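TASK: fixed-backbone design
INPUT:
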């Protein structure tokens, strides 16, 4: 079942919004829109319109991701769903879902990755008072 994909930098969805995972419960860590947005960010800032600033931060994130993806594949990290172990692109997208939907739990379970996603997204959703970072 196709839930969403990126084609030519554009997010496409195969389901109506009310049936997409995460649109009913915004605290379950599942959100197809956030997932595809994360893929679009990678496509835009790394593959199409290269940004050194984004890439530098992404490289640090990738170093963290390399060890986490192994933990996910060996079922040592059960915070992110198993699909995150597919590859770094999917790990980034699944992590983005959790980052925005369940930030406090993410920060507690995976603090290094959470901190680097704060840098990449320039946001801290666990800080309800001031989530936007400079």
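OUTPUT:
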């Amino acid at each position: 079942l196709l839930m969403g994909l990126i084609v030519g930098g554009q997010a496409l969805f195969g389901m109506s919004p009310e049936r997409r995972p995460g649109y009913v419960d915004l605290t379950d860590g599942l959100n197809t829109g956030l997932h595809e947005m994360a893929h679009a960010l990678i496509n835009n800032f790394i593959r199409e319109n290269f940004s050194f600033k984004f890439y530098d931060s992404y490289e640090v994130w990738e170093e963290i991701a390399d060890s986490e993806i192994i933990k996910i594949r060996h079922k040592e990290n059960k915070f992110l769903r198993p699909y995150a172990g597919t590859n770094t692109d999917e790990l980034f997208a699944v992590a983005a879902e959790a980052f925005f939907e369940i930030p406090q739990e993410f920060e507690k379970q995976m603090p290094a990755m959470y901190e680097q996603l704060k840098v990449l997204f320039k946001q801290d959703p666990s800080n309800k008072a001031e989530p936007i970072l400079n």
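COMMENT: The beta strands are 4-7, 10-13.
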